[in-house]
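Model: You mentioned two targets. I'll fold them one after the other.
Researcher: Yes, keep them separate.
Model: Target one:
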Amino acid sequence: MIEGVNLSRLIGQALELDKKERKAQRGEVSKKEPVVSLSEAAREAQRIDSEELTQKLERIKKEISNGTYEVNADKIVEGLKKFI
């Protein structure tokens, strides 16, 4: 997984594009609305990214509930630097 990428946002965008593609296939898209089609490779990458994110979130939830989750202060500082 790539550090610093908001996978939830990317997955949401991909899902929205997929929804538009399905509407276009049914002829429900207006002429002004651009249509983007996802390749099977892109759909597979999207599915894998979603599964990886789900696994990571489950791992973090377990660590928090077990009291074993460790906060990495360096990563927090690096993330905050982007907004300064």
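Model: Target two:
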Amino acid sequence: MESRLLEILVCPVCKSSLRYDRQRQELVCRADRLAFPIRDGVPILLEGEAREINPASRTSSEPPPSGDEGAETSQPDSRS
């Protein structure tokens, strides 16, 4: 994917930047955890065409989410 094009493309849902996953031929929005396919060199930036990304299935080259993203839900205190 051409770097100039990647600089101007944004997520159609939240308008944040997209990361190019060359291996899967997808543009990834980390904020929404969506991956938009690239077919025949054309990014398909339609929410209905995107696949949801499970945070547990990140590739080893992808950095962990920052902030509260991916934080586990708190368990109730077992002390009575």
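Researcher: Noted. Anything on target two?
Model: Residues 65-75 have pLDDT under 50 and may be disordered.
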